[in-house]
Amino acid sequence: MPRFFNTDCLISDLKQVDFHSDEFSARINGCTVKRLAMSNEIYHHLTGANNTTKSRVWFYDPGFKKALTIAAVQQIGPGHKVLCNRTINSLHKLTARTLLAGLLAWFSTWVLMAIPVLSWYGANAQKGVVLLETLSIQIGLAVATLCFSYLLWVRVKMNRLDSWQPGDITRYTQTAIPEPEPVSPTKLKAVKEATRELVE
Q1: What keywords sit in the KW lines (predicted)?
Q2: Phi, psi angle pair for 64, to nearest 5°
């Protein structure tokens, strides 16, 4: 189930996970998050001059093991505008994903049901083909409609950021493991001498 929530947090140490993707590893309030998606505009905002202060961040968790997405960000304080992630609710993505979902459902229906349906009709395969065409078109249209409805719902949610409830970011983060302190040469020399004395 997708989740929509906002929280005040400090996002730092952004590092791109893959050169060809918009996913990053980051630290949120000092804790590590491995997959955080955002638009280039939001990335440049978070890595800009004001990246040392907390911001109000709207997060969208699409579920299905997908990356946590920053839907919008705003610096805390009066007079700052909300910077939205336009890639989530663009009309181009809404149309393309709907068509792709419908085509994949249509093709999958043909692949999975061709052998059972045609073997059921046996010698009268022509009727089986008609049934298969009807089923694949209906399933393709149903999946495309569901996909379009979901994406339209997300688009409506993106246009109503004020209705998003505050949420807890800790479920998406891991506590950062502190790095070991480097051993100074004098301390290392003292340890060696103490070890030599114990051996002798």
Answers
A1: Membrane, Transmembrane, Transmembrane helix
A2: 55, 35
The residue whose two tokens read 């590590």 is 32
The size of the chain, in residues, is 200
Neighbours of 7 (CB within 10 A): 18
- What is the pTM (predicted TM-score) of this model? 0.73
Residue (of 110, 139, 104) closest to 118 by Cα position: 110
Q: What is the DSSP letter of 161?
A: G
Q: Which two tokens mark 38?
A: 């955002």
Those residues with Cβ within 8 angstroms of residue 116's Cβ, 6 or more apart along the chain or in another chain: none
In a 13 Å sphere around the CA of 117, the CA atoms on its Cβ side amount to 18
Q: Evaluate whether 36 touches 47 at the Cβ level (below 8 Å).
A: no
Q: Say how far apart CA 29 and CA 175 lie, in whole Å.
A: 10
Main-chain phi, psi angles of 103, to 5 degrees:
-65, -40
Given the structure tokens 């997405």, which residue do they identify? 69
Determine contact, residues 171/63, Cβ cutoff 8 Å.
Answer: no
* pLDDT tens profile 72-112: 998 877 777 888 888 887 788 888 889 999 999 999 988 88
